[in-house]
Amino acid sequence: MKIAVTYENEEVFGHFGHTKQFKLYQVKDGKIISSEIIDTNGSGHGALAGLLKSLGADVLICGGIGQGARLALEEAGIRLFGGVFGSADKAVNDYIEGSLSYDPDARCDHHSKGHGEGHSCSGHDCSEHGCSEHSCSEHSCS
Fold this sequence. Notes:
It is built from three helices and eight strands, in the order E-E-E-E-H-E-H-E-H-E-E. It is an alpha/beta fold. The protein has one domain (1-142): Dinitrogenase iron-molybdenum cofactor biosynthesis domain (Nucleotidyltransferase, domain 5, 2-Layer Sandwich), CATH 3.30.420. Helix 1 (45-54) packs parallel to helix 2 (67-76).
């Protein structure tokens, strides 16, 4: 089984469509046997689902994700676990153990609204303070 994680600085990156890298884990018999960092080379949103399919990914773990990307992943046969934050390695180990905490309704719905009022990234409402006033590594509003 191959598990892909949106990736930045050892952490699950918070916005699928803007991720610059995936960490791809090869899992066999309930253990990680290898992992590698894959650059997306600027691919965005729908193209990322195709990239993951070409890499043989069975599962994607990410933070926020838009509806179009959700549909593209579904069409590619890739299982989605969104709303995940923190260590990428821990997330994969939790998935393997069946204890991954995720949000099946995680969304990133700001594509037509910009980063102001109405922006919502995986359950975090940025309208109170604006995305420019905090570190995007918390949940990645970028």
